[in-house]
Amino acid sequence: MEEPDAARPPSRLVRLLSALFYGTCSFLIVLVNKALLTTYGFPSPIVLGIGQMATTIMILYVSKLNKIIHFPDFDKRIPGKLFPLPLLYVGNHISGLSSTSKLSLPMFTVLRKFTIPLTLLLEAIILGKQYSLNIILSVLAIVLGAFIAAGSDLAFNLEGYIFVFLNDIFTAANGVYTKQKMDPKELGKYGVLFYNACFMIIPTVIISVSTGDFQQATEFSHWKNVLFIIQFLLSCLLGFLLMYSTVLCSYYNSALTTAVVGAIKNVSVAYIGMLVGGDYIFSLLNFIGLNICMAGGLRYSFLTLNSQLKHKQPVDEESIPLNMKS
Description:
single chain, mainly alpha, 13 helices, disordered N terminus, disordered C terminus
């Protein structure tokens, strides 16, 4: 196949499709994970995370064997190239699943919005980016609304809050470092996904077994429930698709745009979560805080996406997904 021009910029349609793909995967996995961990009461977010990692490894390895995708074979330099992504990857994975199980969807989505100011700060420090006053004011509205909502949360769960704030930190750092590490001439997006999962699945299994978490999962009563099994497998598949779509969106756009698309998705998840899940307790001040946060998130999202779509960045052949190649 003839190599395309390495400096060819992605089209607006490609950027929009990558953002839409990420938003859809992110939306679905929150709902499926919430059903598994809260509705069914599955006791082990860690085991669910292991299932998602194993699915990622199998899909990418089989695809590589069949020459559908390409990423480098393992060598001793790869851990150094990836660090600290594997640690951020597993921290993001486990803290996200743990916070989903302990918080109502509206509070989960509001508190997850702290990913945006953290990403903005990290991109400014690590990637040297600068942002307009309008964007900064929108971020302040997000933070204000989140504080109001959290201060009047009648279903307050300290453990859930700790996990979700850890998840915000891991998500922001993971997005920024993924953008920095996934040079197509090095590991590329497939290599980043594959080796992250490979390096962290064994330590995660060891932690799960040693803490008794794995035994709780194997003794879970719903393993004979066909609907539960289907949703568990769907969550594992969506775990891979979410990681792939996150890398895809970060590459074609930016780590910040990925966080913004997630924020737009969270608006719908938050309001749907008031009606499903059964663990949201309404209070007027909490509802006001939720809406301030959502309004700030939407304004911020439109400002950033509009700015990002006007920006052009080079893409080479390895970075273009199979269904978008000519």
